[in-house]
Amino acid sequence: MSPLTADFAVIGGGVIGLNLALEAKRRYPSAKVILLEKEKDCGLHASSRNSGVLHAGFYYTADSLKAQFCRDGNRLLREYCAEKKIPVNACGKLVVAKDEQELTGLEELYQRGQINGVPLEKISAQDAEKIEPRVRTFQRALFSPTTASVNPKLVIASLIQDAISEGVDIRTDSPYLARTSDGIRSKKHNFSIGYIINAAGLYADKIALDYGFSKEYRILPFKGVYLYGDPSIEKLRTNIYPVPNLKNPFLGVHFTLTDEGKVKIGPTAIPAFWREHYQGFERFNLQESIEILGREARLFFLNRFGFRKLALQEMQKYFRSKLIGLAESMVKNLDKKHYRIWGKPGIRAQLINIKTDKLEMDFKFEGDENSFHVLNAVSPAFTCSIPFSKYLFDKIEHLIGDNPKGEKVGNY
Questions:
Q1: Which of 312, 335, 354 marks a domain boundary?
Q2: pLDDT tens-digit series, residues 95-118
Q3: 198 and 241 part of one domain
Q4: Is the pTM above the cut of 0.85?
C-alpha cells in the first residue's frame, strides 16, 4: 500500500500540538496537515490533567520565553474562552509569606512582574484578608488580579473542533513508531511527509533522537497530584500560593480554585519511575523505568540541584497529612477531615540536560529544514500556548525556506 501524504505532520495532540496544527493550516491554507495522537482522543495527558490555572507571568525572569509569552497568553486564552463561551473563574491569586525571610522572595516576584509588564499589587496582610478573610501571611502579600482558572478539558475539546473545522486531519490511536526515508511510520499507516513537527510531550525527546536532536536532553517525569476539598467546605475567594523556590521550576503546594470554584491542595512534584507512571503499575515500561531510575539515582547521590532533598520531601506528599500540613500555614481554620479526595494524577514532562545534570527552566526546542522538536513545554505552557505556538511556527517557517524539492511547503 502506498503511503499517505501530507505537507505537515504534527506528532502529539496536546494543547501545543493542536495549536501548531492550527497554525500550519492557517498559514498554509492549501496544505495537507495531519495530527497524529497515540491515544484514543487528544489532550488526555498533561494538557487535560493540569491545574487549569491561567498564570499571570510574574514568576519568570525577563530573558525567558516563559516571561515573553505568559502575560499575552493569559490575555489571548481569556479572549478565546470568551469567544467560545468557556467559563473562566477570574479569581486572582494571593502570594503569601510565612516569615520575614520570605519577604525577600515576595519582592523578587514583584520586581519580575514589573519588568515583565504584569499587573501585580503589593498589599499588607490586612488588605490580603479583605480579599480572602482566611488567608495567613507575614506582614505583606502580593495580589495578581489577572490569574484565573479554566477547565482545560473544555479548552482542548474546543481546539479539537477548531482543528477539524479548519481542515486538520486528526488521527487518534496512531502512535509514532519510527522514522522512514520520506516520513514516518505509525500504528496504522506509513506517511510521506513534507515537514514533521514533534510535540509529543513525555516522548518528545525519544522521537527527537530519531532525527538527530535532543542529544543532550532527556525527559525526567514528575508526578503531580491534587487533594480536593469536600463540596460542603467553605469556599476560598482566590488562589493562594506560597513564595516558591525560584531555583527549581515547581511552585510549591498551594490552594487552587477550579473554574467552578472548587478548592484543591497541591500539586506534588514526586519523581516518577517511568514516563506515564500515573498510579500503581499502570502503563509500566521496564526499559523506561531502568533508564529513569538510573538517572534519578545519579541525581540523588550526587545531589544535583538539591534533588535529594526535593525527592525526599516530595515522596512524603503521598501522605494526605503531609500535604495538608504544608497548606495549613497559608489559611486559617483548615479542617483536615474535609480534604479526602485525590484528583487524577498528572505527569510533568520536565527536560533535564544530561551533560550538566540541570533541569531546563525555560521552553526548549530544536529543529532543521526537515523536522522541528518541542522538547520542553512545561508550565505555564498551557497559558502560553497561543502566542508560544505562533512563535514556534515563525521558527519553523525560517527553517523550512524551500523544501528539498525546491517547492514551498503547502504545495506538496
A1: 354
A2: 999 999 999 999 999 999 999 999
A3: no
A4: yes
What is the distance between the alpha carbons of residues 244 and 148, in angstroms, rounded to a whole number?
Answer: 19
**70 belongs to a structural domain:** no
More confident residue, 17 or 334: 17
Torsion angle defined by CA atoms of residues 263, 363, 158 and 44, in that order, rounded to the nearest 10 degrees: -70
- For residue 53, what are the β-bridge partners? 149
Set of cell numbers at residue 181: 526515508
- Per DSSP, the chain holds a count of helices (H) and strands (E) of 11, 23
Residue 151 phi/psi, 5-degree rounding, is -90, 110
- Residue 251 domain boundaries: 218-354
pLDDT at residue 232 in the model? 80
Shared-domain flag, residues 269 and 409: no
Residues in the chain: 412
Number of domains in the chain: 2
Q: Are residues 277 and 347 in the same domain?
A: yes
Residue-averaged pLDDT of the chain: 94
Q: Using one digit for the tens of pLDDT, what is the confidence trace for 358-367?
A: 999 999 999 9
**Could you give the 3-state DSSP secondary structure of residue 383?**
helix
